[in-house]
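Recall the central idea of this unit: under ordinary conditions, the amino acid sequence of a chain determines the structure it adopts. In this exercise we apply that idea directly, starting from the sequence alone.
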Amino acid sequence: MSTPRSSAVHAERLARLRAELKALGLDGFVVPISDEHMSEYVGEYAQRMAWLTGFGGSAGTAAVLPEKAAVFIDGRYTVQVRDQVDGSLFDYVGVPQSSVAEWLGTNVGAGQKIGFDPWLHGIDWARGLGHALKAKGAQLVAVDANPLDAAWDDQPAPSDAPVAVHDARLAGQSAVDKRAGIADWLRAKGLDTTVMTALDSLAWTFNIRGSDVSHTPVGLAFALLHADATADLFIAPEKITDAVRAHLGNSVRIHDRSAFEAALAGLKDKKVAVDPDRAVAAIFTALEAAGAKIERHRDPAVLPKAIKNDVELNGTRAAHVRDGVAVSRFLQWMEKVAPQGGLNELGAAAKLREFREEGGGLVDLSFDTISAAGPNGALPHYKVDETTNRAIETGTLYLVDSGGQYADGTTDITRTIAIGAPTAEMRRRFTQVLKGHIALAMARFPKGTRGSQLDILARQYLWADGVDYAHGTGHGVGAYLAVHEGPQRIAKPAGGQAGTEEALHAGMILSNEPGYYKAGAFGIRIENLVIVVPMKIDGAEEDMLGFETITFAPIAQNLIEGALLSPAEADWLDAYHAQVLEKLGPGMEGADRDWLTAACAPVDRAPAALAA
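Accordingly, the structure predicted from this sequence is:
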């Protein structure tokens, strides 16, 4: 394998960090992909691991010692990390097979001091690593200033873009009412204050949106919400316009973001709720030093944010129709242009964005488009750039996973198409993925059901052939917020602890996205978004739920092996395509409309369905 082109750059950066560590009396340092809010996606100023190592994924950690260093990534990035990170500088360590604590435990010596930035790590991670190092005679040390920032001489500043009001006509509930609900929750639990740090929770609670993180409409801020329904919002003053100040009103006191840590010191003897999954270690340390009485509770905005109201759901439905027109126009364009040759992944992604922009209302993409041709499609979280950009060639599959941020909703859709004639293997695997997608879309389940209990529905037909996919089947989605939103999910039980997962509630939005990936050959994924809705079933003895599909774009019929579809599955597909034509047809005309009509024709049915 060739050495990444930027290896000399990253060797020099690694040397600079080691020099900073030596000057501080530290023997090592841990560098996560994180920010002060423990966000999944972070601003450019917080891309410390990318600066140090060259790794461009959204999840990972690096650890640096005087003579060794390592990057820790999960199975999604096994190939990507080797393309982007120089193996002569960093060991590649897979998780969860190993961990930062295990690697450091093997490589540190007695008396060594390992630094970490307490504003970038959770409290349980810090305590766990501290105990592991102590067992080796080493010590975990919280730094006052991040030494990597000192080494990064051209580090971008945090965004100073102003935040904007998210009108209650789109939010469906006023910010005053949301904060009143949180105050009720605090009083019911006998608490004085809750610390809110998750950026999407802040955006939802205060009905504001920003542009400080790529593809996620949030603004950098912290907040303290109190049992009297007042709040303290910590945000850079240049980000607050007169309109936002008027929107927030007198019950929200505005402070500079830099004043947040000092404000924690003022909570002496207060009963304070903190979410250990969303608040960094430094917050716990500051509250403990202040003498606050800390209680661990989940961020009180998490569940209300996940359960959308009717206004949010109707806005999301409308956004999906506009988005579906753009995606369908793109699919028609691909069918015409791709077989001619000369098209590559970057060009296709740019054209898809162009169609979305032409449709109107696009604020941003909801994530970097996964535009993956041939073997690149076998990387579920592939990210195309100038070095990986691949030609889209006849005889291959093309997978495109993309989404848009609109003021009334967030979209996320994946379609897989054949460039030229697909092979029998491609058709079989695509149909098995489709059968799993349909099984989940048609599921009926009692209230209290968790996503892990439904996950097997999407995998069963692949499992019958002894194959699987290594990602979850569904993630929560926000309403003009994060494209990945908890607590809802559809996946295998995490550590076997199904009972600790959130039950699915009516009003939640999730993705339905089974897939199949053949390394070095092709990838397949079919993704629609769904809303959890109540179901009326004659004679039912339980309160039942099901899914309403809200994503609309044709599913490639030339990839379907009709003999593998049951009559019920074929009926579902025909009904789905009838909805696609009904909803998108009015927004398409000419050749686009003709193509859509043909793409939504009834599926070819075999005389007798065969077992998968």
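Residues 453 and 498 are 8 Å apart (CA to CA).
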